[in-house]
Amino acid sequence: MKVKSPLEVYNYLPRTNCGECGFDTCMSFAAHIIDRSVTPLDCKPLVEEAEKNPKVKKKLEELLELTAPEIAEVVIGVGENAVKIGGEEVLHRHELTFFNPTGFFFDVWDTMDDKALEERCEKIVTYKKFYVGKYLTLDGFAVRCTSGDPKRYREVVKKVASYGKPMILVALDPECMKAALEEVADQRPLMYAATEENWKEFLKMALEYKVPVTLRSKDLNVLKSMAVTFKQAGVKDIVLDPVTEPLGEGLKGTFERVIQLRRTAILGQDKDVAYPIMVTPIAAWLIEGDEVTRSYWEAVIASMFIVKYGDIMIFRSIDQHVVMPTITLRANIYTDPRTPVQVEPGLRAINDPSPDDPVFITTNFALTYYTVESDLTSGGIKGWLLVLDTGGLGVEVSVAGGQFTASKVKELMEETKIEEKVNHKYLVIPGLAARLQGAIEDETGWKVLVGPMDSGRIKGWLESNWPPKE
Amino acid sequence: MKKFTLEEFLELLKKYNVEEIEGVKIEGDLEIELEGSSIDLSAIAPLYSMLSEFGNFLYHANMALGYLQRLSAALGIPTPFAAQPQVAAPVPEAAPAVEELKLPTELVKAKFEPYKEEYPSKIEEVVLGATKADGGSRDYTITLGGERSLAFYTFDAPQPHLPAIAVDVFDRPPALAKAVRVHYGDVLDNPAEWAKKCVKKFGADLVTLHLISTDPLLDNTPASEAVKVLEDVLQAVKCPIIVGGSGNKEKDPEVLEKAAEVAEGERIMLASATLDMDWEGIANAAKKYGHVVLSWTQMDINNQKTLNRYLLKRAELPRNSIVMDPTTAALGYGLDYAFTNMERIRISGLKGDTDLNFPISSGTTNAWGAREAWMKDSPIEDDTPWGPRELRGPIWEIITGLTLSLAGVDLFMMMHPVAVAVLKEVFNTLGGKVKESIEDPGEWIFMEV
Fold it and tell me: N or C terminus: fewer CB in 10 A for chain B?
């Protein structure tokens, strides 16, 4: 973003403090444009006025240009499943945050038999991993043309499109690509890829079908030349693939190319390479070795570039030992470091509990809370969950650091009036807080039971420990 | 009601810088009725939308102007614009824009000039272990640090030492995930054999001996007793050694001081000194017997600065005798905090903060605390099944370590042999020590399974 101060933005706003955007003042709205939690298009009066008034429209366009992200943002797909990639501002997440999580696309190919294709597509669209209060999912398909037959490719692309997820069309042959685009161009797939050999045809298709296009070259001079050529011809939605080499010096070279591209775009202000970057961990399947070796290496390549500037990726393996670590890493790296991950302290009733059901306690660190809450909920456990304000720290750290103490537990129990809601005086504390057992008993007069070290084991623990034997 | 004339319209076009309006067009009667007596800004809105709609067969503001000029000439209205005779009459139905565009036949030649980044400072070099020549009995030493760039950015500056891997050994069997335990089942009761296995079978660069039995809540082994195991381990293996306590703030200084004494001259690392214990005692022992101190803080860059400064200024520990542990959280369980904290520390160090330019150590074994690493399957009903945990566990440790290596970690304390091997391969690869490459990295585009 070219502007750094809310003041610079403020001058472009209506300055009426109408509050329609949800902020009290235009200045406050301006500050949120700077931190990118809103865009100028969230100012309704400004947008409405711009529709009527070219002068205002021009100002709005200027403002959009000034507040545009350093790295171009590219949308793949349409509707609610569309994936936004790029749009980044910084090289290190602590400098602001990373914005659009790496797009995860999974490979299917047109020489698969129909049944295998359906099974694979089904697995990809139904994938779910619970994490911090929501489910992580996969973004879309990379449909490879392995048949070399435009007709077959078109058929398969059509079939895959019916799953409603965004697609990368992987075909270097312009005939095949064209056949697929005729079928699904309105789904806004990403073309993969224009190369030094086929770029003229791909440029023509990018313009004709108005779809985003990947440019692929190991030589960054060629890559930049292609980007300049495409841009000058009127293509806006460009993705750069500096070629993922999966092994040895090749992988080291890939690491260098990806970093150089992003760093030169942001610090070197080179707008000609300020596009999202494609990385293809699937290339790990070219190395020698068994399935586990290759899939581990695929996870390694993906992780390297989730941390370092990969905006979109093509994967082969949908095995959990590849997907789970990488999708979790993506969630971690793209978590906004500016917002504390805490939940409201207090009392939660889980699964409509009765006064006979157990009382648990945990901390208000979002990750801890959602883990415990979802374990109880999905395990069908009825109970009362006390959420202690530890300033967003987990159990182990807050017990050691003095944010999880017996006196704070007592306060919370009084505030939430838990003793009026149950007909017993048993509190289950996390196994990691075992050392507070005596202190909490002394402080509250309740009997304290030490639960398991991991809330995933509460269910089994309750079987032998609840109701308590006295 | 006011009539809006073509002349006024043209004035407006001029006023609003019409050459910047792309795809401008016009059709129909140019007389537009407007409410109000004067032309305010909103007055041109209908015109503007008309201009946009007309855009199906004119691309360019200039063409629109040409059209207007001919139109106005026909109507006998003088225009402020010069005639533009080159513009042909508009075609009512235009072919798609693409056909009209002249596509380039050659690439526009552009040169990519990578941005270069240089940092003014350098990370301290810290040597672990001492060979005979230096008064110890190790076969080799390990040097940490020395970076002048971000990790593996060898295109900015050469990286003199790749990260090292230490494997954990405990003086009594600890709680271990099954996938880890199977590799140590035969040595759990024998720390010296355990250490040997780490070095000989699992390729450990160093061994970390954790004297957890000294914990008053466990065996409460006296310090003088506990360090006998250290002596055994020093005998059994000839790699540099790290010694850890039990994490008990009262007992650890005593244990580590005793360890420093019995390992005199071996340049071991004492793990660790923290702000809420007698860090001074540990630092003094390190100074006296020639060891290194691991300065451990809980994910707080300011506390890390404070503790390092105490060690440097108050305890007067030499600068080449400090390694930092800013705390490792597992993938999925706070790794983002750990990563960013370490990355900030490393960048500060490179930029010249002399309280922070020390090598970084990571307790990567913490990755096994994540349930995804060890639990049989997801406790969440709607989750896609988690697959075999034997495969999930090691990769959890690998990705935790790999991520932190990119933040700048110099020393990894680990446990699973596969994780050790894979991470080593990663470091050697990014460090430029693996020569082999794949000839055609584009083959995946066409490959059939």
Answer: N
